Amino acid sequence: MALLLLSAPGSAHEGHKKDLSEAEMAQMEMQDHPAAHHDGAEMMPDAMIGPAGARQASANAMPQTADQALAAKIAENRVTSISDFLGRLHPVAAHFPIALLLLAALGELLLTIRPALGLETTVRFLISGGAAGALTAALLGWFAAGWRLEDRSETLGLHRWNGTAIAAVALVATWLAFRARNRTLLRIVLAVLAVALVLQGYLGGEMVFGPNHLGLE
Length: 217
Fold this sequence. Notes:
Layout: H1 2-17, H2 22-32, H3 39-43, H4 46-60, H5 66-76, H6 82-88, H7 90-113, H8 120-145, H9 154-179, H10 184-209
Domain DUF2231: 89-209
Protein name: DUF2231 domain-containing protein
Organism: Novosphingobium pentaromativorans US6-1
């Protein structure tokens, strides 16, 4: 069980890097952990499955120790190249622009309700930081997912291009925050960014934890 928990996100990551579809990644996961899909056979008594089957079921039922599983995962996750290392920084970088840009949208909403709050400078700071973070996260995301324009995984394709669009639109929002006299367009752009950021977080969860990770379907 410990090995399965440790390896699930890694398997999804490898599947996306290899440009597999969701169905192919699910198949790969089953092939990587066949014992997890034969619980019924392991629950059958020896008299029903025979001596040879009993020995095989017993072997399948013997998991690695937690220390062995951890050591195997550490060895598997060793960095193989600079681009591999940069790609692994994507999850770290992705959280900052999400927080900053959503806070910028919230600040602008408060300004709409109460202009006297004087949050213009704060909003500009949040948008600027969020745009820089979004650009960095998008670039690292391309290292993580591979440099190609089309993906066989629909989820990865949406995540890739939505993230790239977020970075571009965030740069536009930065320009508007510093240059535009009328804040209406800025507010529209921030609203679009907020929706795109929530969608991006959902797609990231789908990639790491698998289809229907929220359990709503």
